[in-house]
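QA checklist item 7 of 12: single-chain prediction sanity check.
[x] sequence parsed
[x] length recorded as 165
[x] structure emitted
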Amino acid sequence: MLRSVEITAELTNPPRDEGSHNLHWQKKLELSLDCFICGRTGRTTAFEYGQEHALCSADDEHPPHPAAARIAAFDVTGERHRTALRAVVDYWWAPFHDVKRDRASTALTRAPWVRLFLGYYCPQAGESGGFSMQTNMVRPVRDSCGHCAHPLATSEQAPGIRLLT
């Protein structure tokens, strides 16, 4: 069955000034999914926009392998002090039983989480940097430049994960 998940996130940014760091969402993410290929629940699955498949992390008994999943949409909006992301992930799912954990799979794993990646350019250091945010972090989360400590963004709420179909 083809399933779709919508992922949403919002950050507040400090006022743009001469120290602007060109903060941007990177077109990749990690999402926990139940993988019918390796028969394991709650697998970290890595996605990159434009790739025709994702990569399941599997476990000690199974090496990482392609997953029938992809980023179908990646939309960014921004206002004066806010930047938002909406991504849609499509993936194939089939029911199975995870023998190692003795539980049935679900269309959206039992405790879904997502990790989103951001990048920036530090004009003071003349270097790029990056950081990530994920659902299981204690909020608010404030991120700063790793080169000059300039404040970049604040995450007040965890990213949203919603099964669409």
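[x] summary fact logged: The longest strand covers residues 24-35.
[ ] second reviewer sign-off
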